[in-house]
Design a protein that fits this description.
alpha/beta
């Protein structure tokens, strides 16, 4: 079963993403913040990550910096979710594992399609 880690601090959005992925047969791990996401990923390596950028404490970019220093984790395809269009493209391009950036509010179909593209190796940036 394909496992997706969802790192999102807003409970409503995290549950929305998780429910839609589970409905399509994915196993979902949930983290309410980046620190919890890092702890989860040390025990279970997911097939993909859905990552919010604006998180309390460590933000999504810092999460990626922490995770991608480990060669075993650096290639995990990641879909970044943000409500802020101003997140710099240069920062996104620094991380080869970021397959797509989607902007909130996001539809279930758009989010699931982005995860499936990430898992299939498609990069839309």
């Amino acid at each position: 079963m394909t496992t997706v880690l969802v790192v999102e601090d807003e409970l409503n959005i995290r549950k929305f993403v998780s429910a839609n992925l589970k409905a399509r047969g994915f196993q979902v791990l949930e983290a309410p913040d980046a620190e919890t996401g890092v702890a989860i990923i040390q025990n279970t390596i997911p097939d993909a990550i859905v990552l919010d950028i604006k998180l309390p404490g460590m933000d999504g970019w810092q999460f990626l910096e922490t995770v991608t220093v480990n060669p075993n984790l650096a290639e995990i395809p990641t879909v970044v979710m943000t409500a802020h269009v101003m997140d710099s493209e240069a920062r996104q391009l620094r991380f080869q594992n970021v397959s797509e950036v989607i902007f909130k509010p996001v539809s279930a179909a758009q989010m699931v399609a982005a995860v499936q593209k990430a898992l299939n190796g498609a990069k839309t940036m």
